[in-house]
Amino acid sequence: MKYQISGKQIDIGEALQTHVKNELGAIVQKYAERPTDAQIVFSKVAHEYVCESVVHLSTGLTAQAKGHATEIYAAFDDCANKMEKQLRRYKRRLKDHHKERPNPVEVFGGASYILASEEGSDDSEPETLQPIIIAEMETKIPTISVGEAVMQMELAHAPVLVFRNEKTNGVNVVYRREDGNVGWIDPRNSA
């Protein structure tokens, strides 16, 4: 598994990096059979250290966790405990979905944009139809089944997930509805 361990305006020592690799590696190996990479970012907010981790699995699943504590090692341990809890909850579902999958999930790149909101918007016609883009980043779009997409959306606590349906090879969307159910948009079936 590839690790990317960094700090936002704080130094990350070699001992902490070794601790992160050993602990997170053991957790991920225990609950996920084929991890691909992990990104761990440490930062400090006021008197607390914050540890954010994102682990990508070859099944297409992305697990995220965030921990807080007054000491940097304790912040990582909190984050690791949350990651372990997530992966433990989904281990059975992961095995059921992926036991027949011989190869890792295929992903392709896509652009993700954050658009600026209108200040004092009152539903009137905007001056221009070109929105202001305030952030642009690349995101991964996995080729997975609908069930796997719902599982990944739940694991990431995301309101929406865009994916390529492995059966139809079309771009689909799953999203959390206001009534708590999950919606699925499949443009191929809209006629």
Automatic annotation (TrEMBL):
It comes from the Bacteria. Residues 130-183 form the Sigma 54 modulation/S30EA ribosomal protein C-terminal domain. Pfam families: Ribosom_S30AE_C, Ribosomal_S30AE. The gene is PSrp1. It comes from Sinisalibacter lacisalsi. The lineage of its organism: Bacteria, Pseudomonadati, Pseudomonadota, Alphaproteobacteria, Rhodobacterales. Interacts with 100S ribosomes. Associates exclusively with 100S ribosomes, which are dimers of 70S ribosomes. Required for dimerization of active 70S ribosomes into 100S ribosomes in stationary phase; 100S ribosomes are translationally inactive and sometimes present during exponential growth. This is Ribosome hibernation promoting factor. Belongs to the HPF/YfiA ribosome-associated protein family. Long HPF subfamily. InterPro entries: HPF/YfiA_ribosome-assoc, HPF_long/plastid, RHF-like, RHF/RaiA, Ribosom_S30AE_C, Ribosom_S30AE_C_sf. Keywords: Cytoplasm, Translation regulation. NCBIfam families: yfiA. It is found in: Cytoplasm.
